[in-house]
Amino acid sequence: MKRSFLQNIRAYFSPASETVILEKSRKLRLSGTPFRIPLKGLPEYRIEMGKQTLYLCPDPGVAGYEEGSPCDFILFDPERYYSGISHYQRLSPGDTLVIDHKIEYQEQMFSFPREAFRRQLSISNSGDSLVFKDPISELGTYVSLIDDTLETPSITDLRKAALRRILEIFGGPLEPLPADKATETLIQVNELLRHESGRLKDSLGNPGCLLELAEHITPIIVGDLHAQIDNLLTILSENAFMDSLENGSAALILLGDAVHSEQPGRLEEMESSLLIMDLIFKLKIKYPQQVFFIVGNHDSFQQELMKKGIPQGILWKKHVIASRGEEYKEQLEIFYQQSPLLVLSPDFIACHAGPTRRKISRQILVDAYQFPDIVHDMTWNRIRTKAFPGGYTSSDVRQFRKGLEVGSDMPFIVGHHPFSQDDTLWLNVGRINQHHIVISARSDRVGIFTRIDGKMVPQIFPVEPLVEWLNRQAATDEQ
């Protein structure tokens, strides 16, 4: 078939790659010509760019990998990745990854960003091979296989270890707890909330609505989960998050709306809502100073909670009483009443829905449960659009930041309102600088924010059926 003009142009600027078989003893120098390396098994690569070393390792997932199938690769700095929370790039089949200083947040990957950006490295994943290219031949970029005697843990092994830790914390298979155990767990959580770190008492002596996060704590900010338990497990198994909760260097911050599935055909199903709250409560008991829940509009039994005509608030109340009893329902109401509305850190502010449109101060937000309009705005409001003309605007965000005495460029992160139906996070929404939305309830991928090198960085992970995998592990352990 004759090539089109556009195909000829692409061929001219993208010379044909040279196929090489990379042996363990060989170090391949990239010098302008693209090198195609066929994939056999799950190889791990070392990339040297002057002082900067990167690893490119396969991420076949935890829940099951069919040998020979295409899989993702992860590009990361091993000095950072193996020592704590870090940033990295995902390379899926059919995609090309480029090292370029113009790509936002990419700098947070590297120990030596100048060394990386001096090159023009690109890596393509065709599924059955990888193509490496760096046209800057005089600087030298080298690719080799990682020495398997170094005993560096695989990405999969790290994730499996984190998931088994979650199973241990939960105390058995991931299924809704018996009513008595669930009530006992929730009573413990409510007692913790009465003395939760980072929260001043309000004028009535109750836990205030403002949670202040210490500067040294790295946040893991999760948007609306809507009963997607696999999404929460995916997050907890990634990027040293569990290790960081364990050693006290990070905090899991859930921006509300953990309950009420939004998946087609499951709007009335409430068992998954019970289970995800059971898991959150178990995590809170295990890490009382590292797990925080910011209340959202679905965190209630309000009758106005509707989704496509389904009264989820009413159904939630009925299901809770039927399966757990009145005492559990009352304790859950206490949990909602004692949970904070806003988290404030030196690096960001975050709440479920949006800023209140009245003038505020930190003290007013501590006392926010005495102001129903503030509670409503911060749990129900959404940014102004043609579909929602009564929403908040850039001036509301500016006034909110001013009332909190933070900078005009302080990242403000919310959930509640997906800005489209085909993504999990959105940056600078409404053309408002550093105003971001994260919804963590998609069934295929889940977004979060964390902090790398003093900057709030978005990350996205593919979702797997991890409840099913974990329960198989639990069943095997019992045998």
Characteristics:
479 residues; Purple Acid Phosphatase, chain A, domain 2; 2 domains; 14 helices; 23 strands; disordered N terminus
Tell me what you see in this structure.
By secondary structure, the chain is of the alpha+beta class. 30% of the residues lie in helices and 21% in strands. The termini are far apart. It is globular, with a radius of gyration of 24 Å. Helix 5 (179-193) runs parallel beside helix 10 and helix 9 (312-324) packs across helix 10. It has helices at residues 5-13, 78-81, 113-118, 155-170, 179-193, 229-236, 241-246, 271-286, 312-324, 326-338, 362-366, 372-380, 394-403, 466-478, and strands spanning 18-19, 27-30, 35-38, 45-49, 52-59, 72-76, 89-91, 96-98, 122-125, 129-133, 141-145, 199-201, 207-212, 218-222, 250-254, 291-293, 342-344, 349-351, 412-414, 425-426, 435-438, 445-452, 455-462. The chain folds into two domains: 5-152, no CATH class; 157-478, Purple Acid Phosphatase, chain A, domain 2, CATH 3.60.21.10. A seven-stranded mixed sheet has the order 12-13-17-18-19-21-20. It has a six-stranded antiparallel sheet with strand order 2-11-4-5-6-7.
